[in-house]
Design a protein that fits this description.
Layout (H helix, E strand, L loop, with lengths): L5 E3 L4 E4 L10 E4 L2 H9 L6 H18 L5 H16 L6 H14 L6 H30 L7 E5 L14 H10 L4 E6 L6 H12 L4 E4 L4 H6 L5 E4 L3 E3 L4 E4 L2 H11 L3 E4 L5 E2 L16 H4 E2 L2 E2 L12 E4 L6 E4 L2 E3 L3 H9 L5
Parallel strand pairs: 4-5, 4-7, 5-6, 7-10, 8-11, 10-15
Antiparallel strand pairs: 1-2, 2-3, 8-9, 9-14, 12-13, 15-16
Helix pairs in contact: 1-2, 2-3, 2-4, 2-5, 3-4, 4-5, 5-6
Length: about 350
């Protein structure tokens, strides 16, 4: 990748501000855990794996900033930061998975504060490196799905910008490109925040992969015309039965895909599977402010006083999903059996 979504700088966390893309490549230096939490909440950094990494680095940063020689107080303050991170985005399970890993460091209470600070950094950097490795493995496992000359549709952004690097859904495409395959990517603009038009399109231009942006309501026409061979999307949380929460609009895309006989695949790390949830009906769906719908680029496009419904995600039923591409391989239906068989009873 020609850019870095997030970097650990020792005394700060550097984040590529995705709100400014594609017009401006600007980084934010977060000097406190609170500023990292704000960057997550305000979507300067977004994408389930990326916000997990950001939260981990934010917690590690807090460990460096807390000034006390009392172990009990140190643990209490870091735990407070863990809770703060958990309140930023409710849907993405990777966030809570990363927080649990950082909390596990605090459980090593026999260590002194200096050692705990070092261990927090070590764990955050491990989460960062593992995410990149996992993404590359997802790409390798999924690239065989892409045939030479294929037309691929994707929604939102599940690329390097949504992860520590490389990407999940786009990672599959990058791996196919590296195998010499030629294909064309159709990118849903992804209203209301246009992550497809702004972010995915930007990534594909950087990587010189042929792509075309479409509005969200054009997907059906493309499918009917025979230009789409498969759909690959990311995920923010996957229930044990395969129901998948992803950016709003994915459910409608899945219905269209099913109608036209086009396979839809979800690309996501094992850490995105929430083994504590039986189905997608239990996934909490974040609702965001109405200004995201009524305004574009700071300019109002809807009448003042109009009501707005703005869920950030929807849930695609498992019956509409052809497979889940993970670092361990492609999980196929029936998911309520294959997820446990192929992955295990819980995320590691």
């Amino acid at each position: 990748m020609k850019f870095k979504t997030i970097e650990w700088k020792g005394d700060r966390v550097r984040i590529l501000d995705q709100r400014r893309l594609p017009g401006l490549v600007r980084h934010i230096d977060c000097n406190t855990a609170s500023s990292v939490a704000k960057a997550i909440r305000e979507m300067a950094i977004r994408g389930a794996p990326a916000i997990g990494v950001a939260a981990a680095m934010g917690i590690a940063l807090a460990g460096q900033k807390i000034r006390t020689d009392r172990p009990a107080l140190f643990l209490k303050e870091v735990d407070k930061v863990c809770r703060q991170m958990g309140q930023t985005r409710p849907t993405a399970v990777n966030l809570f998975w990363a927080i649990r890993r950082m909390r596990s460091v605090l459980g090593r209470s026999a260590q002194g504060i200096k050692e705990l600070r070092a261990e927090l950094i070590k764990e955050a950097l491990a989460i960062y490196r593992e995410d990149i490795e996992v993404n590359r493995s997802i790409g390798e496992k999924g690239q065989n799905l892409i045939k030479d000359g294929a037309g691929i549709l994707t929604h939102c952004n599940a690329g390097a910008l949504a992860t520590a690097g490389y990407g999940t859904a786009l990672g599959v495409m990058y791996a196919a490109r590296d195998q010499g395959k030629r294909f064309h990517v159709f990118v849903d603009e992804t209203r209301p925040l246009l992550q497809g038009c702004r972010l995915t399109a930007w990534e594909l231009v950087q990587e010189k992969i042929p792509a075309t942006v479409i509005t969200d309501n054009m997907a059906g026409v493309l499918m009917a015309s025979g230009k789409i061979d498969l759909v690959i999307v990311g995920a923010d949380r996957i229930a044990r039965n395969g129901d998948t929460a992803n950016k709003i609009g994915t459910y409608g895309l899945a219905v269209l895909s099913k109608w036209h006989g086009i396979p839809l695949y979800v690309a996501a790390p094992i850490s995105t599977i929430d083994f504590g949830l039986d189905s997608g009906t239990e996934i909490p769906i974040e609702e965001r402010g109405g200004d995201e719908v009524t305004h574009i680029g700071g300019k109002r496009i809807a009448p003042t006083g109009i009501k707005v419904f703005n869920p950030a995600f929807d849930v695609t039923p498992h019956s509409l999903i052809a497979g889940i591409i993970t670092e361990k391989g492609i999980i196929r239906p029936p998911f309520n059996k294959s997820i446990i068989r192929d992955v295990g009873s819980k995320a590691t």
